[in-house]
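Troubleshooting log. The previous structure file for this entry was overwritten by mistake, so regenerating from the original sequence record. Sequence copied from the archived sheet and checked twice against the printout by T.R.
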Amino acid sequence: MNTILEMRNITKTFPGVKALDNVSLSLEQAEIHALVGENGAGKSTLMKVLSGVYPHHSFEGEIIYRGEVQKFNNISDSEEKGIIIIHQELALVPMLSIAENVFLGNEIDENGVINWPETFLKTKEVLTKVGLGKENPQTKIQNLGVGKQQLVEIAKALSKDVDVLILDEPTASLNETDSDALL
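Regenerated output below.
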């Protein structure tokens, strides 16, 4: 197999608490992993280290991505490399449409003008991947239930050039039907 990502000997401490103690993780191309543990076990902390929420100088250990040591200072650094995280808390703008949310900050444009037909087409494609193919890309986020909003978050991640997709408790706000569709 082809190792795409390694996290070696990651240790992260907060005042009075060692959240991660010498944790290592290795991912191969096209694998799916689940980190399981009690609340406070460090699952989200490890993912925040990987995604740059906690910058490289705030923890011990190293992240090797595609054979190169990475020093992510923020989420933009990890996203630029193709590592996308979806946090448990939704980060959508309720008064914008699905399409506007999916491509917010990553707009499809021609000479600085948003190409709406292409945006709607690409939105439909990623919505289909997450089981929301029947939704209108122009629907406002505020008109969707929480489960569908979570699926829009995932569609947003898939609209980017993603190699490693991290989902932090992706089914926590979904009903059984939406969870099955996502999985």
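Helices lie at 43-51, 75-81, 98-102, 116-129, 146-158, 176-182. Archived copy saved in two places this time.
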